[in-house]
Design a protein that fits this description.
Strand content: 15-25%
Number of domains: 1
CATH class: Alpha Beta
Strand order of the largest sheet: 4-3-5-7-6
Number of helices: 4
Shape: globular
Number of strands: 9
Largest sheet: 5 strands, mixed
Radius of gyration: 16 Å
CATH architecture: 3-Layer(aba) Sandwich
Length: 208
């Protein structure tokens, strides 16, 4: 997910159905444009053959949150549940205390400039089961995460951001629908937190 404060994230893939994603991988390209230049960050979407996955919340997330209105690990659970609760889908992403799973980190100097979060590896093969996926959220003085529903409209919505990234973890790419949690671009303040009907259809197509 890229910072989109007066900048816009772009996608270079055409819109394909979830069934098609099962047959081929797509490259979702996240772009930030600044002063006539653009920087591109890409990762490949796909699917898991094992529909039940675990994520691990690391203590490094505490270093990126500077508000008592966000629970770094508790809000990860809320984000995961938004996908787990999609009806007619067998997808499950739940927290583990350690071991194998999808680690979620808050790191500085890791992501490309302007990118506030991303799923690695950037070019995995599909299915993902042996790829060692992990998530990185930017630790930067210019990126502030909070809860706009509690008045923090000058911050990026942490739950919305993590719901978006967990959508990528499941293998869902970007789209241009304004109501989608998987839409391109993110600004401070209100952003969709819940998968819309299109997002849910994509998940069902992968894990039903």
């Amino acid at each position: 997910m890229t910072n989109n404060n007066n900048n816009k994230e772009k996608i270079r893939t055409s819109k394909l159905s979830a069934t098609t994603i099962k047959l081929m991988t797509l490259v979702a390209v996240l772009t930030i444009t600044a002063i006539g230049t653009s920087q591109v960050y890409a990762h490949t979407t796909g699917y898991w053959t094992d529909y039940t996955q675990k994520y691990i919340c690391t203590s490094s997330l505490d270093t990126i949150i500077h508000t008592n209105k966000v629970d770094p690990c508790g809000d990860l659970s809320s984000a995961a549940q938004k996908w787990n609760s999609v009806t007619y889908s067998n997808w499950s992403l739940t927290e583990a205390s350690g071991g194998s799973g999808i680690y979620v980190y808050g790191l500085s100097n890791y992501l490309p400039s302007g990118v506030i979060a991303g799923v690695y590896p950037v070019n995995p093969t599909s299915p993902f089961d042996n790829e060692g996926k992990f998530v990185v959220v930017s630790k930067s003085s210019s990126h502030h995460f909070g809860d706009p529903t509690q008045g923090e409209t000058d911050k990026y919505d942490y739950i919305a951001l993590m719901t978006h990234e967990f959508g990528h973890v499941a293998g869902i790419g970007h789209n241009s629908q304004s109501s989608s949690v998987m839409k391109t671009g993110m600004v401070e303040g209100t952003f969709p937190r819940d998968p819309n009907s299109h997002d849910k259809s994509e998940l069902r197509g992968l894990y039903s």
